[in-house]
């Protein structure tokens, strides 16, 4: 109850993109699925949000269902609707969290509706400075995110040597050269302000 003297904090706008039936708690689901909170196809642009009006976006096991060109459109639209991130690196304001199966795991290729992997290296393309340095600024990408990647390693057990307890050097080698070492990759994109 508001007594007239209390300032109520505005509720955060947190959208789970392609949430389907597995909407993240505390988020509003947006999906073409009829049971979603917001029924809207991710490729139907623009999304029903104003520029810079969304606090946080979550996108779990969705990007791999789109081809690369459509992934670019989704990333650019996410950049458009997100607020700028806060200076506090622990804040989730202005972030897009993308969770995908690793490109070299059976999880990526077992689902017949998966169209294109979204490897951690692809995240570079959504950073303007990286595109410029690599002479790729002619690409039709507008987004300019900083990002951090995290990996969920698989420990197969049953006598098969896993990499969870191995040295970081062994883990990095296995992540890039062996299949089925990583189950999921999580990439947190941050819409940071740039100095002019």
The figure for the number of domains is 1
If you consult CATH, what is the topology?
Rossmann fold
Rg over CA atoms: 19 Å
What's the shape?
Answer: globular
Individual helix count: 4
CATH architecture: 3-Layer(aba) Sandwich
Strand fraction equals 15-25%
Protein architecture, described:
Helix 1 links the parallel strand 4 and strand 5. By secondary structure, the protein is an alpha/beta fold. Helix content is about 15%, strand content about 20%. A 7-stranded mixed β-sheet has the order 3-2-1-4-5-7-6. It has one domain: Vaccinia Virus protein VP39 (Rossmann fold).
Q: What is the topological layout?
A:
Blueprint: E1 14-17, E2 28-31, E3 38-39, E4 56-60, H1 68-81, E5 95-101, H2 106-109, H3 128-133, E6 146-153, H4 168-177, E7 182-190
Parallel strand pairs: 1-2, 1-4, 2-3, 4-5
Antiparallel strand pairs: 5-7, 6-7
From the structure above, extract its key features:
196 residues
Sum this structure up briefly.
This protein has 196 residues and is α/β, with parallel strands linked by helices.
């Amino acid at each position: 109850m508001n007594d007239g003297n209390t300032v109520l904090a505005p509720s955060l706008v947190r959208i789970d993109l392609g949430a389907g039936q597995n909407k993240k708690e505390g988020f509003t689901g947006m999906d073409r699925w009829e049971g979603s909170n917001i029924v809207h196809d991710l490729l139907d642009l623009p999304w029903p949000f104003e520029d810079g009006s969304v606090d946080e976006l979550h996108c779990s096991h969705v990007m791999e269902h789109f081809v690369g060109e459509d992934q670019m459109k989704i990333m650019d639209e996410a950049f458009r609707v997100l607020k700028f991130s806060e200076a506090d690196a622990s804040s989730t304001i202005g972030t897009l969290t993308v969770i995908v199966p690793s490109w070299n795991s059976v999880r990526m290729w077992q689902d017949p509706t998966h169209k294109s992997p979204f490897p951690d290296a692809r995240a570079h393309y959504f950073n303007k400075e990286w595109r410029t340095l690599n002479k790729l600024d002619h690409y039709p990408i507008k987004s300019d995110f900083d990002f951090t990647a995290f990996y969920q390693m698989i420990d197969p057990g049953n006598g098969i040597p896993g990499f969870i307890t191995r040295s970081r050097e062994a883990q990095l080698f296995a992540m890039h050269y062996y299949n089925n070492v990583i189950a999921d990759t999580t990439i947190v994109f941050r819409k940071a302000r740039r100095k002019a």
